């Protein structure tokens, strides 16, 4: 296993992280489907492979994921980095959701109890909240750090402009600053390259990736013929938007490359992400040990420069305004002088 520090911090994390979203049962059986014994097997294997970074959230299976992960890490908790998230609705009351000071304090305390720990290594706000002032959210996070309940903070699923505004406020006021952005990113979902990646690189915010296989689509187990089968996860949780036919065209190339490496489509897709310099860690979530074993081998797969470029060109997102305007109007005379 390889390791890196997360963002502008000294927090050492494995390049592959274990996502515990599948732990528990609930109203989404296509997602929440791993019982305690199965979860123990997955956690033990992840630890044995050198993974020290575990991710969960208070909204996963009504908190069951946190409870199970805390129990299963047990005595090895001090060896690990636990990330959990708050912000989604956790009750019927109007105030039991969002990023207000009231809810974040309550959500953090509840996560601490479920995880069976007295501190959270990385506390992540799970979504945006248009009804709470940004300063209120950031001050509440700072206070959780100052109280010792949280060691580091991050955000997930925020637009780049909001994250940039937040980091500016945090640094101006000398509040605890975001070291992490947890974002959706995959070969067929490269939207973050427009704005989030440039922001993160410039601000030294480490990016961790959720959905690296696009909800399982890039695992290669789906075909044009079986995509709509009721037993498929995507038939019950088709959350990530992309053109399926274009996705299958990408997958055809991924399968071809995988065959040449003696690898699987999932391993090639994960290896492409791990090769991106702006990616700190990639979350791999599994419901079966065989899936985890397959994903773990991606850490050992080195794609050639030519194959990386082939995948880059095949899936490169179209430039958005004003990015395309800026690229088209660069001063070529200055660029040429700087290259001499």
From TrEMBL:
Keyword tags: Oxidoreductase, Signal
Protein name per UniProt: Oxidoreductase
Organism: Paenibacillus mucilaginosus 3016
UniProt-recorded Gene Ontology molecular function terms: oxidoreductase activity
Pfam short name (any one): Aldo_ket_red
Domain NADP-dependent oxidoreductase: residue ranges: 15-314
InterPro entries tied to this protein: AKR, AKR_Detox_Biosynth, NAD(P)_OxRdtase_dom_sf, NADP_OxRdtase_dom
Gene Ontology annotations for the cellular component aspect, listed alphabetically: cytosol
């Amino acid at each position: 296993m390889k390791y890196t520090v997360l963002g502008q911090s000294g927090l050492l994390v494995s390049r592959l992280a274990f996502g515990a979203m599948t732990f528990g049962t609930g109203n989404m059986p296509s997602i929440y489907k791993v019982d305690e014994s199965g979860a123990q097997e997955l956690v033990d294997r992840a630890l044995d492979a050198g993974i020290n970074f575990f991710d969960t959230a208070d909204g996963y299976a009504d908190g069951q994921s946190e409870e199970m992960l805390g129990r299963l890490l047990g005595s090895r908790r001090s060896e690990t980095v636990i990330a959990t998230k708050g912000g989604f609705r956790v009750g019927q009351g109007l105030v039991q959701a969002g990023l207000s000071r009231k809810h974040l304090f309550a959500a953090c305390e509840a996560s601490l109890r479920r995880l069976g720990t007295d501190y959270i290594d990385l506390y992540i706000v799970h979504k945006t909240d248009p009804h709470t002032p940004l300063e209120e959210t950031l001050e509440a996070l700072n206070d959780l750090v100052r109280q010792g309940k949280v060691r580091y903070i991050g955000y997930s699923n925020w637009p780049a402009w909001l994250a940039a505004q937040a980091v500016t406020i945090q640094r101006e006021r000398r509040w605890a600053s975001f070291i992490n952005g947890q974002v959706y990113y995959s070969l067929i979902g490269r939207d973050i390259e427009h704005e989030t990646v440039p922001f993160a690189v410039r601000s030294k915010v480490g990016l961790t990736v959720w959905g690296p296989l696009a909800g399982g689509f890039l695992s290669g187990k789906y075909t044009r013929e079986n995509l709509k089968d009721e037993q498929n996860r995507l038939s019950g949780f088709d959350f990530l938007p992309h053109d399926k036919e274009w996705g299958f065209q990408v997958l055809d190339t991924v399968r071809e490359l995988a065959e040449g490496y003696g690898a699987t489509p999932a391993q090639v897709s994960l290896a492409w992400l791990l090769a991106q310099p702006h990616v700190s860690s990639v979350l791999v979530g599994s419901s079966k040990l065989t899936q985890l074993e397959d994903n773990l081998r991606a850490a050992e797969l080195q794609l050639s420069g030519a194959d990386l470029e082939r995948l880059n060109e095949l899936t490169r997102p179209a430039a958005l305004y004003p990015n395309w305007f800026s690229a088209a109007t660069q001063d070529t005379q200055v660029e040429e002088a700087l290259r001499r």
